[in-house]
Structure formats: structure tokens, C-alpha cells
Design a protein that fits this description.
single chain, 285 residues, alpha+beta, Jelly Rolls, Arc Repressor Mutant, subunit A, 2 domains, 10 helices, 6 strands, 46% helix, 19% strand, globular
């Protein structure tokens, strides 16, 4: 059974044997294992799964399942439009699109476990169970409730990835750690993630900001922001079907040529080459 909403769909399905699905144009998919066990394979990596496991699958992933025991899946599929600003909504989902880009750019699929923290995993399971209940409900407020439950799930996922991202790093000032969090979660907002915006947010004079940031990060501010954007661009090229033009626009580059030039300058590889390594058919954009 699948219920389609404007910008996302929720489906619950049981499988004894996995049948390959058609290529999806969705931005990404969350998978929650309700019952069963087996193995999931993603881009050449294999991970065992049991009831309660949670996976995030970008649209360009080559993935599937080897099912040992009949498995009941909860699939939540999104398009990027889900995170677009909606004037009639009480929630600005464009903010959560920023967070999703952080997740896509920094989640290591090779690790397998999306939420290693046991307490957070229990919270997310409870939220998924609420989504399941609302999935079968005919309540007129179900769509709004599911949207907000998904926002909460993304917050928990992103903070687990953030812990992994900064694992082993130590910074002398707590304020600077908060500053890095702010930058990563607002990376697509050019006004917020500017010298003026960050300096104002953390009450540092603009004349002193550059020196302060470089002393703590061992890298100047503009290079740090650019490298962070390129990391997301790399992941988006490899893990999603978004066009290079879309990626460039969303990350604040002049156009796809500008993005490609910066990628080659910093990483000696172009966007087309990154995508071609994953799927040669996708590289023709």
C-alpha cells in the first residue's frame, strides 16, 4: 500500500523475495525495517539488517536486498520539492533542505548504521511507528503530522552524522564549535554564511573575524565554506540524479561551469568524472 502526497510518498510492503525496482527520480529515500532479516547491498557494500534498522538511500544508489526472512519495509520517498519554501506552511522546509544536503554530503554509506546512538535510534523508531499509525489513518491532519515527524527524524539523523564528522577533532572554544554547526546547517544560505552573517550571529567584529576563524580552523573562512560546498557537490553528483545545473544553483555557484572549475581546482576531478565513476549513463547531463 502506497500513499502519495504532494512531495513525498509513504509505502509499507512485505517481500519474501526482492524484486528490483525501476530507477527513481526522487531525491532520496528513508527505509525502516518493520519486520524480517537479511542483507542490504548499496553500491557494492553489503550490510545485514534486522527489524528496527534504518537506512538512507540517495536516488542514484545501486541498492537491493537479499531477504532471509519475510521482510516488512516502510519506505519514505522524497523529492527535493518537499523542502521548498511553502508560503502557506507554518514550517519553512527550505531550512530542512539545507540539513538534508548536510546529511547527503557527510553520511558515509560504508558505515552502514545511520544512527549509531542507541537513545537517538529509539527516538527515531518511535517517530517511524507514529508515521506507520498515521499512514493507515484517515485523519485530515495526517499529512501535516507526517511532515513534521519527518523533520524531527532529519534533525536526529543530522546530529548523529555531525558527531561522526567532528569525531577526533578538538577545538579550544565552544563558541567556535557552535559556529561550525551554524555554517554546515546554513551552507545554502549565502546571506547567513558570509563574513558579515556569521560575525553578526556570533558577536564578533568583522575586522577580527577572519583572524579568529583561521586561528581556530587552520584554514581561512572562504576556503572552508567553499570546500564544504564542494564536498556536498561531490556527494550530490555521485549519489543523486540532480543535474549539475541544479547542484550549482543550490550551492550558490555562478553556473555548472563555475562549479566544475572549482571542483577541478581543489580536487583535480570534474563533476562528470565523479558521476561517471558511479553510473556511466548518468554522466551525460
Amino acid at each position: 500500500m502506497e500513499i502519495n502526497h504532494e512531495n513525498f510518498s509513504v509505502s509499507i510492503a512485505s517481500h519474501e523475495n526482492w524484486k528490483k525496482r525501476g530507477k527513481s527520480s526522487n531525491f532520496f529515500e528513508l527505509v525502516y525495517i518493520l519486520e524480517g532479516e537479511g542483507e542490504q547491498y548499496v553500491n557494492g557494500s553489503t550490510h545485514p539488517y534486522v527489524a528496527g534498522d534504518i537506512f538512507l538511500l540517495p536516488s542514484a544508489s545501486c541498492n537491493g536486498y537479499v531477504i532471509d526472512k519475510t521482510t516488512r519495509f516502510l519506505f519514505i520517498r522524497f523529492t527535493s520539492n518537499y523542502f521548498s519554501a511553502n508560503p502557506s506552511s507554518s514550517v519553512n522546509y527550505s531550512d530542512w533542505f539545507n540539513r538534508l544536503n548536510f546529511i547527503i554530503g557527510n553520511y558515509d554509506q560504508g558505515e552502514g548504521d545511520l544512527i549509531p546512538n542507541a537513545v537517538d535510534k529509539a527516538h527515531v523508531k518511535s517517530l517511524f511507528n507514529l508515521i506507520v499509525a498515521e499512514h493507515y489513518s484517515e485523519n485530515s491532519c495526517s499529512v501535516f503530522l507526517v511532515q513534521n515527524l519527518l523533520v524531527s527524524i532529519l534533525v536526529i539523523i543530522s546530529r548523529n552524522i555531525e558527531k561522526q564528522l567532528f569525531h577526533g577533532q578538538s577545538f579550544p572554544e565552544k563558541r567556535f564549535v557552535s559556529m561550525l554547526h551554524f555554517i554546515h546547517y546554513n551552507l545554502l544560505d549565502q546571506e547567513k554564511v558570509s563574513v558579515e552573517g556569521v560575525a553578526s550571529r556570533f558577536h564578533i567584529s568583522e575586522s577580527y573575524f577572519s583572524e579568529y576563524f583561521k586561528r581556530n580552523a587552520k584554514e581561512n573562512f572562504r576556503d572552508y565554506v567553499l570546500r564544504s560546498k564542494l564536498k556536498i557537490a561531490e556527494a550530490r553528483a555521485a549519489l543523486t540524479t540532480s543535474s549539475f545545473k541544479e547542484i550549482a544553483n543550490e550551492l550558490g555557484f555562478t553556473d555548472s561551469s563555475h562549479l566544475n572549475k572549482m571542483m577541478k581546482k581543489y580536487y583535480q576531478v570534474g563533476m562528470r568524472e565523479i558521476r561517471n565513476k558511479v553510473d556511466p549513463l548518468q554522466s551525460k547531463q
